[in-house]
Design brief:
7-stranded mixed β-sheet; about 230 residues; single chain; about 25% strand; about 30% helix
Length: about 230
């Protein structure tokens, strides 16, 4: 199965492509606010490198956030356009789920991504690592303060934290969570390989979505989504 997956929820443009021969191509580009400029050229480049055309794609996958309002709109609008033009299945993924997979390389039993949501808040959730390192989300997707997150995680002795929220809140977390683990900056953003991995898992389980009802995971109230 040929699958094209993208995530534009952060400053990183994350794009993965897998073809029928299970060959995977990954792009993780620090594009800042240039997703609009780079997304379509990067898709064309990826298709060309694996010698696949857009008409060959059997399923699309897209990161739904939470994250940058503008980035999410760009990514979702692009994928919706492809899906509606081709009438093929689509998978929606939480960007927090994709990010949490970055921490599976370690031995942590609990993982909590923290994404800077501005206004002294973070987008977050927490996951327990189960059998064969399968993630089990143990919370809703949340928009909360670091203080609230610390209170909610007090039942766990050690937690692995990652995400760009650490750039602002790592010191506060370290003061209260001395037994926890703080991953390096190269793990703070979704990675294309993990995007493909989760998309394949959902495809195998038949977890497709109705593109007409697919919406970003904003978490902020509607009036905050418009600048």
């Amino acid at each position: 199965m040929n699958i094209l997956a993208i995530d534009t929820s952060t400053r990183r443009l994350c794009l993965g492509l897998i073809n029928n021969q299970r060959k995977i191509l990954e792009y993780n580009l620090d594009s800042g606010i240039r997703h609009t400029e780079l997304l379509l050229p990067t898709i064309k480049k990826a298709l060309r490198r694996l010698r696949v055309s857009l008409d060959d794609i059997d399923c699309f996958a897209v990161g739904l956030g939470p994250g940058s309002f503008t980035g999410l709109r760009i990514g979702l609008a692009t994928i919706k356009g492809f899906v509606q033009a081709r009438n093929v299945p689509v998978i929606g993924l939480s960007s927090l789920d994709v990010l949490a997979v970055n921490a599976l390389a370690g031995n942590s039993k609990v993982i909590s991504p923290v994404i800077d949501a501005k206004r002294n808040l973070v987008y977050t959730a927490w996951y327990e690592v189960g059998f064969k390192k399968r993630l089990r989300r143990r919370s809703p997707y949340l928009l909360i303060s670091i203080e609230e997150l610390l209170n909610k995680l007090r039942v766990y002795k050690s937690v692995a934290f990652l995400g760009d929220g650490l750039r602002i809140y790592q010191q506060a977390l370290r003061q209260r969570r001395k037994d926890s683990i703080f991953l390096e900056e190269d793990t703070w953003y979704p990675q294309a390989g993990n995007l493909i991995k989760l998309a394949l898992d959902l495809v195998n389980r038949g977890r497709f979505q109705d593109v007409r009802r697919m919406k970003p995971i904003y978490l902020y109230p509607k009036e905050c989504q418009i600048r």
